[in-house]
Amino acid sequence: IELPEVSVSKKEIQESIDELLDIYGEKSISEDFVKKELEMNSVQEYYESVRKELTAGKRNQEFISARNKAMDYLIKESKFVLDKESVAEYSVEIVDSYETEAYLYDMELDRYVAEELQMTEDEFFEECYREGEELIKNYLIVGAIVKEENLEVTEEDIKELSGVFEKDFDEYSEEEKTYIQYQILENKVYKMFIKE
Q1: Spatial contact of 195 and 1, defined as CB atoms under 8 Å apart
Q2: How far apart are CA 182 and CA 36, in angstroms?
Q3: Helix, strand, coil fractions of the chain, as percent rounded to 5
Q4: Distances in Å between the alpha carbon of 164 and those of 5, 38, 39, 157, 180?
Q5: Residue 8: closest CA among 61, 51, 45, 44
Q6: Residue 82 DSSP code
Q7: Residue of 6, 54, 88, 178 with fewest CB within 10 Å of its CB?
Q8: Is-contact 70 191, C-beta < 8 A?
């Protein structure tokens, strides 16, 4: 899958700037405002930073879309033998994640499901089971490709992400490290199918 070129229009840049001006209660961008509030050297530097941020956001959206298409294709072309009990157990974690979302909305899960997700209880649990099944298939495919291609996480991979981490990699729990390493491997798998 080849990612398309992305560009940002002047209108999109202006809309982003207008949102910021609304937050600060300002009518327009000035050199003084940019230096004082945004700690940048000039309006031009700020415009460029907005353009870069919007472009990166669009690139990320395109990558996610391509990643989903690649995984959908791989899942469709693969055969799985999944234990329904294991899928159901994993689906409980999906339910827990929705419960956390509901909590953030200051709602009980049943109310969140009805009002925000607009589903019946049965539809909700079916959706959680489906999501759990899809995630397990995703893990199995990534694991099979990692094994087949002898992919591994290197020190360089970890160093490359060091700016993203909230703390030094060694300070994370073993479970967190495993998750981070899986994310790195998953990205390597996707990059085999996606041309940037």
Answers
A1: yes
A2: 42
A3: 70, 0, 25
A4: 25, 21, 22, 12, 11
A5: 51
A6: -
A7: 178
A8: no
The DSSP letter of residue 105 is T
The whole-angstrom separation of Cα 159 and Cα 163 is 8
Report the C-alpha gap between 54 and 19 in whole angstroms: 13
Cα separation, 184 vs 176, whole angstroms: 12
pLDDT averaged over 10-residue windows placed end to end, the chain, 196 residues = 88 94 92 92 94 93 91 92 92 95 95 96 96 94 95 91 80 91 92 84
- Phi/psi for 133 (5° steps) reads -60, -45
Distance CA 71, CA 77 (A): 10
Q: Are 142 and 185 in contact (CB under 8 A)?
A: yes
